[in-house]
Amino acid sequence: MPLPERITSTRDLARRLGVSHTAIQKAERVGRISREPDGCWDVEHVHRDLTASAVPGRSPMAVSGDATPLGRLTLARLALGVEAQRLAMDEKKGRLMDIAAANHRVDEVAAGMRDAVLNWPARVAGQIAAEIGRDPHLVQTILQEQMHALLLEVADRLDSPASSETDPRA
């Protein structure tokens, strides 16, 4: 295995890597690269560190996209920004609504459905009684009892422990 190439001159290191000596000095100053304990530069180690921390589009050492941790973080930050803009646009266009408003709307719809179901026996009891030849009041009473039992069963299902878990956002 060959020994790593070591250089003492910052300018020589910069020439070998194809960057300016001030770029090497700045990278050392901010901690992106460091000298070996003996004060020399390990060319391969410096190249690897510069490549891993280079910003695509700003550095000739940068590799494309998500090949480095910095690239993956930059891409993730960009994706989060895009998602935030999409949510802001959806909110502006009225595609999103507040949880309290949504719950209120669901309650309104459910109340309307409940009222329609409760009024159904009175509306159809006369027709059913005429078709089967029975007393309309008796048919309406039986239908109301059955609807009441059905609504209680549905309410029990909706109030079961599995569906009443605590909201993690609360």
What would you note in describing this structure?
By secondary structure, the protein is mainly alpha-helical. The chain has 3 domains: 61 residues, no CATH class; 33 residues; 60 residues. The chain has 6 helices and 2 strands, in the order βααβαααα. The protein has a two-stranded antiparallel ribbon with strand order 1-2. It starts with 5 loop residues before the first strand and ends in a 12-residue tail after the last helix. 6% of the residues are buried.
Secondary-structure topology with pairs:
Elements: E1 6-7, H1 10-17, H2 21-30, E2 41-42, H3 43-53, H4 69-92, H5 99-132, H6 136-158
Antiparallel strand pairs: 1-2
Helix pairs in contact: 1-2, 5-6
Q: How many helices?
A: 6
CA-atom Rg in angstroms: 36 Å
Low-confidence stretches: none
Give a quick account of the main beta sheet: strands, pairing sense, barrel closure: 2 strands, antiparallel
Terminal-residue CA separation:
60 Å
Shape: rod-shaped
User: Structural class, from secondary structure content?
Assistant: mainly alpha
One letter per element, helices H and strands E, the order comes to EHHEHHHH
Give the proportion of residues in helices. Answer: 55-70%
- The beta-strand count equals 2
Number of separate domains: 3
Mean pLDDT comes to 85
| Percent of sequence in beta strands | under 5%
Side by side, the strands of the main sheet go 1-2
